[in-house]
């Protein structure tokens, strides 16, 4: 009767040791699978690409973010600048840079509004990049490729008259693949007219 508990204890110790070995092996397997999955995900991200339709859709969304933040920041700048300059003391006998003070203060309020316009565009772009953080590397890559295509395919700007500038020099109006093809046709047409007067 005294031997049975000893056998039970010894087998339980063996099972605990075996269980510990199994747990360590299982943990090592999880760690190995985690790093293999991480490497696989990294390779997938490297090989992942974005088609042009998705790029133009994201580009349009980025433009919407910028415009959405431009409106309140411009209004805030105008109202803040107007409030600040309206509470300044006016001396009709004094001038600033040879101009009337009211005119200078009004121009100052408009200037603050323009600063708010540019700040709103920057804030909208930053928030867009934070919201779409996963697509940010691909979007940057596509931005570079799109700009290189614009530089490569636009008409030569040297010698063009100021009265007839190159249409959409930076490709800002391109919002789809169809717009890009239309832009290419316009560039070829402009080049043909500039070179051969046809």
Automatic annotation (TrEMBL):
- One biological process GO term for this chain? protein import into mitochondrial matrix
What's the chief localization of this chain?
mitochondrion
Q: Enumerate the transmembrane spans.
A: 68-86, 106-128
Which Pfam family, an example, fits this chain?
A: Pam17
Q: What membrane topology does the UniProt entry give?
A: Multi-pass membrane protein
The family database entries (InterPro entries) matched by this protein are listed as: Pam17
| Entry keywords, A to Z | Membrane, Mitochondrion, Mitochondrion inner membrane, Protein transport, Transit peptide, Translocation, Transmembrane, Transmembrane helix, Transport
Q: Where can this protein be found?
A: Mitochondrion inner membrane
Q: Which GO terms describe its cellular component?
A: PAM complex, Tim23 associated import motor
Protein family per UniProt = Belongs to the PAM17 family.
Main function: Component of the PAM complex, a complex required for the translocation of transit peptide-containing proteins from the inner membrane into the mitochondrial matrix in an ATP-dependent manner.
Per UniProt, subunit arrangement is: Component of the PAM complex.
Q: What is this protein called?
A: Presequence translocated-associated motor subunit PAM17
According to its UniProt entry, this protein's organism is Linnemannia hyalina
Origin organism lineage: Eukaryota, Fungi, Fungi incertae sedis, Mucoromycota, Mortierellomycotina
């Amino acid at each position: 009767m005294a031997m049975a508990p000893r056998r039970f204890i010894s087998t339980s110790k063996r099972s605990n040791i075996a269980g510990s070995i199994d747990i360590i092996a299982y943990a090592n397997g999880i760690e190995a699978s985690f790093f293999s999955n991480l490497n696989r995900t990294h390779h997938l991200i490297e090989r992942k690409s974005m088609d042009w339709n998705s790029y133009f859709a994201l580009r349009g969304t980025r433009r919407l973010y910028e415009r959405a933040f431009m409106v309140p920041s411009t209004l805030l700048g105008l109202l803040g600048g107007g409030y600040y300059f309206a509470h300044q003391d006016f001396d009709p006998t004094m001038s600033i840079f040879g101009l009337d003070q009211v005119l200078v203060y009004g121009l100052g309020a408009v200037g603050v509004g323009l600063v708010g316009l540019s700040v709103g565009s920057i804030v909208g772009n930053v928030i867009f990049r934070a919201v779409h953080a996963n697509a940010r590397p691909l979007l940057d890559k596509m931005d570079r490729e799109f700009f290189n295509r614009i530089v490569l395919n636009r008409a030569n700007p040297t010698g063009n008259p100021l009265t007839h500038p190159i249409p959409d020099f930076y490709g800002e109006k391109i919002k789809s693949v169809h717009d890009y093809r239309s832009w290419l046709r316009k560039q070829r047409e402009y080049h043909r007219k500039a070179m051969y007067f046809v």
